[in-house]
Specification:
Layout lengths: L3 E3 L6 E4 L12 H4 L14 H8 L6 E3 L5 E9 L9 H7 L4 E7 L22 E7 L7 H13 L3 E9 L4 H11 L5 E6 L2 E3 L2 E3 L19 H8 L5 E6 L3 E3 L4 E3 L2 H5 L7 E2 L5 E3 L6 E6 L11 E3 L5 E3 L7
Parallel strand pairs: 1-15, 2-4, 2-12, 4-5, 5-6, 6-7, 7-8
Antiparallel strand pairs: 3-4, 9-10, 11-16, 11-17, 12-13, 13-14, 17-18
Helix pairs in contact: 2-3
The protein binds iron/sulfur cluster (2 copies).
One iron/sulfur cluster binds next to loops.
Keywords: 4Fe-4S, Iron, Iron-sulfur, Metal-binding, Oxidoreductase, S-adenosyl-L-methionine
Organism: Candidatus Ghiorseimicrobium undicola
GO molecular function, one term: oxidoreductase activity
């Protein structure tokens, strides 16, 4: 039976198959909006259950023109997704109506050894991996490169590599970028989010390089500091069209809610056949002030007095 998820075709679909990770990055987006509480604990759900449920999601193809159709994009993320025991099974068995992007740190046991477990990945079409290099966790650049090249040699597309542009380690990040370019992938700096030296990043008027850095969509810095500064929980109306699947199948539209295992979910992928993610309407949230930077881009809010604002619309300050 088909599962209907009410959300526009171009909504971001992110599947968090696990929040576990082999690293403990201090700037991890899982932690930075939860400074006073632990991230939610979720069990592993088997690959068979994920595949059966996701392949049942309806309307995953859209007409592009008379002759061709678009396939639905899906991001398989975490945590570190290769830590899920059925990672390869999930990738191999999601059907061809999905276009899959996996984001990995290329540092788990999945990549260990001459070929790692890469031979288990049989799917080559409709799959790409992005990588993030976390030099502050002690992984050498040589090891990271080795794992990227091993993956490419196994016939798997590695598209973009990211390095977090930590404000205290800019020179190192720039040097590592030069090395990573030799892997033949696009290499981008990822904005540093959260606090360093008491300042909330990203900051206004910082002269970010649009060509080298991943865009964050933040133009309204006063609202960013208010809503994403991790200092309070206030009521606001919020409108978002993310569809985020927690490791237990619970469906959210907000990273903060998923990471905290909030009760504000819209249903469960494994048990519900109809889920409305309320992507086009405002809903009341009482956690404004603790929003996660992953939810900044294009984000539309409305205050209780009815005034609307958007994090991506420029406001001086
Ligand atoms: S590798 Fe990624 S998911 Fe893991 S701790 Fe670092 S930022 Fe978080
Ligand atoms: S206001 Fe912030 S915490 Fe609440 S749903 Fe929106 S993004 Fe999430």
């Amino acid at each position: 039976m088909n599962k209907i998820i009410e959300a526009p075709f171009n909504s971001y679909f992110g599947v968090f198959i696990t929040l576990a990770c082999n690293f403990r990055c201090a700037y991890c987006v899982q932690k930075i909006t939860l400074p006073h509480q632990a991230a939610g604990q979720y069990p592993f759900v088997s690959g068979k259950q994920w595949v059966a449920a996701l392949n049942a999601v309806a309307s995953r193809r859209k007409k592009k023109n008379l002759f061709s159709t678009k396939k639905k994009k899906i991001a398989i993320i975490g945590g570190e997704p290769t830590l899920h025991p059925d990672f390869a099974y999930i990738i191999n068995n999601l059907d061809n109506d999905w276009r899959i992007t996996v984001t990995s740190n290329f540092a788990s046991l999945f990549f260990e050894g001459k070929r790692g477990r890469l031979d288990e990945i049989k799917r080559k079409k409709g799959l790409r991996l992005n990588g993030s290099y976390h030099f502050l966790e002690g992984m050498s650049i040589d090891k990271f490169m080795e794992n990227v090249l091993k993956t490419k040699k196994a016939g798997i597309t590695v598209d973009t590599l990211f390095i977090v542009m930590h404000p205290e380690h800019k020179d190192q990040a720039s040097r590592y970028r030069e090395v990573l370019l030799k892997a033949g992938c696009e290499v981008k700096f990822q904005r540093f989010y959260g606090y360093a030296h008491g300042k909330l990043y990203p900051v206004a008027q910082a002269n970010y390089d649009k060509n080298l850095e991943q865009s964050d969509g933040i133009r309204n810095y006063p609202a960013y500091r208010e809503g994403f500064g991790q200092g309070r929980h206030a009521p606001v109306y919020c409108k978002m069209n993310n569809v985020l699947f927690a490791p237990n199948g619970d469906v959210y539209n907000c990273h903060y809610k998923l990471y905290t295992k909030s009760e504000d979910k819209f249903g469960n992928l494994f048990t519900d056949d109809y889920i409305n993610t309320k992507s086009s309407e405002y809903f009341l949230c009482r956690d404004y002030g603790s929003c996660n930077p992953c939810d900044a881009e294009g984000h539309q809010f409305k205050r209780l007095d009815g005034s609307e604002f958007n994090i991506s619309q420029y406001v001086e300050g």
